[in-house]
Design goal:
single chain; 8-stranded mixed β-sheet; 2 domains; alpha/beta; 19% helix
Length: 284
């Protein structure tokens, strides 16, 4: 009887301590989120994807909090979110070409805006805009990196679009990297089925700094590793004319399906099998 009573008291004490710990963590989290901020000025920026970014989320420079997100809005007819940042006035020398990026604290933490300084001598003023930004990275893109697909180009200098047609795109999806010589030079903007030509029309957004790609270059859908994500690889041609915005790449290679690879292996066999039936030396 005494042992059972002690067990009940211990269980109750454990539950009470657990609730107390949760209450303490809640108050600590609230106090961090509501850090007092002195005089501030506002700066606007734009993101194609804000993820789970919320108002009052921190704004950081070099990991140090310098302000918070004041508002997040999406105007009708626009495809980018307008984000207003409230920054402490003592941090008033932020170069106008600085980059605003949505980051995540740890693996499952809250999101915040990080500012990476540019090199301009002109500073952003109250009510100004940071034109360069990088949106939050979707989970699918991070998994693609894990499986070896790699990241897409930053495209901070703008992009131009090129189209390519494939009879089979496999699991290629928007946001997948576009690579040349293994280096990301852009990303897949869209993948659409053509109801007339009955093939897949893929639009590639390529960084403008890679504007010297010959117009007879080829595009192929490859897979990173055995079970990795798919991407588009560009093989440069030899034409003196270069691809321009809106051009279409004629030479393409569709995605190779696993069933086709297995079929080729079973039909052709391995290289060692091809010489397996050769008579031994001296045999009649």
């Amino acid at each position: 009887m005494t042992q059972r009573k002690s067990y009940a008291v211990g269980t109750g004490l454990f539950i009470v301590l657990g609730f107390a710990a949760l209450a303490y963590l809640a108050t600590q989290t609230t106090s961090v989120a509501n850090v007092h901020q002195g005089p501030s000025y506002t700066v606007s920026t734009h993101f194609a994807n804000v993820g789970q970014l919320k108002e009052r989320a921190p704004v950081k420079i070099a990991g140090v909090r310098v302000g918070q997100v004041e508002s997040i809005a999406l105007e009708p007819g626009k495809e980018v979110a307008d984000v207003t940042l409230s920054i402490d006035k003592k941090y008033n020398q932020i170069p106008i070409d600085s980059v605003a990026t949505v980051f995540t604290s740890g693996l499952l933490g809250d999101q915040y805006v990080g500012l990476q300084f540019g090199s301009a001598k002109k500073f952003v003023s109250d009510g100004g805009t940071l034109a360069l930004s990088k949106s939050t990275e979707p989970l699918e893109a991070m998994l693609g990196k894990f499986f070896g697909a790699g990241a897409s180009a930053d495209n901070l200098g703008g992009t131009y679009t090129v189209k390519a047609r494939f009879t089979n795109v496999g699991a290629l999806s928007p946001g997948a990297p576009v690579k040349m010589a293994g280096v990301a030079i852009g990303s897949v903007q869209s993948v659409q089925a053509d109801p007339v030509k009955l093939d897949a029309l893929v639009t590639l957004a390529i960084d403008k700094k890679y504007d010297q790609i010959p117009d007879d270059s080829s595009a192929a859908v490859f897979t990173s590793g055995l079970i990795g994500s798919q991407y588009v690889a560009v093989q440069p041609g030899g034409s003196p004319d270069m691809l321009k915005d809106g051009d279409e790449m004629i030479l393409t290679q569709s995605a190779m399906q696993l069933e086709d690879l297995i079929g080729k292996f079973l039909v052709n066999g391995s290289p060692s099998d091809k010489g397996g039936n050769k008579p031994a030396d001296g045999a009649k």
